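Need tokens for this chain, all 304 residues.
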Amino acid sequence: MRDTLTDDVPTSIVRSSRHFDQGSGEPAHMKQTISPGTGEPNRAIYSLGAAVTRFRPAARWLDEGERAAIELVAPDVRGQSILDIGVGGGRTVSLLTLLSSDYRAIDYSPTLVEACRNSFPNRDIEVGDARDLSRFDDGAFALVVFAFGGLDSVSHNDRQIVLREIHRVLAPGGYFVYSTLNRDGPHFDDRPWRGLRRTRFNVAALKQVARWAAMYGSTMRDHVKGWVKWWPMRGDVEDHGSWAHGPLTGPGLGLVVHWATLIGTAEEIETAGLSLVALFDDQGRRLEPTDTTVTPMFHVVAQR
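Here are the structure tokens for all 304 residues:
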């Protein structure tokens, strides 16, 4: 097993996500046309053996924003049914089962599902795609969670498919909690070495790097190999203003992901028939859709 998430993925696979026909209209600012597409290039990366190392169980909050989002809904969902989408290696299993033993989880990577089952053999964890939740009944869950930017692994059009499916499986009044990469944050259309330069003068950034290193074993060797994967994709950015597609420059280099603004997320939620309850930055501060924030990722609480 290699250390870097994208180490075993040929550049041709990573780049095969280009020129996906989204049918989403004319972009506002387009350099090239790419997207996560059907999710297959990203799925290939998440299905590597190295993904098990990257996403190994670590029962801790991603950041204070994730904690705040779950704590906000906890009183209303405690003891009720929970669906954990994109469970990965199982980071969220122990956190969410503190709320309820009526817990189910899915991930579209068989590699990660197998690893998660090995860590939590008594939990209901299955291979499944968020775009097809037909195995679950209408109104089956009081809470659906899609943590750590999992929703960003599919294209803009497919996000609406996912959101409609989540709307269907949520009970009336049920909550959907997820995180998404910030189009207005520091990492969109960034260069991977810039973050290292910034950390020399930014104590908060140093703490973030230390947290990533503790959780995912990030090393300079990992970064260098990731840069090699990122380099051919460096100009592949499709920017529509309120949302965008582009390569990820942090841990997990090689993924082509979706980015969204706060206002774009509010509109996306409304289109899916959900109500926006709250937005949180990575420090756990409440945000408004009209705010401008440089948080790398923000957390969303929506309600059916």
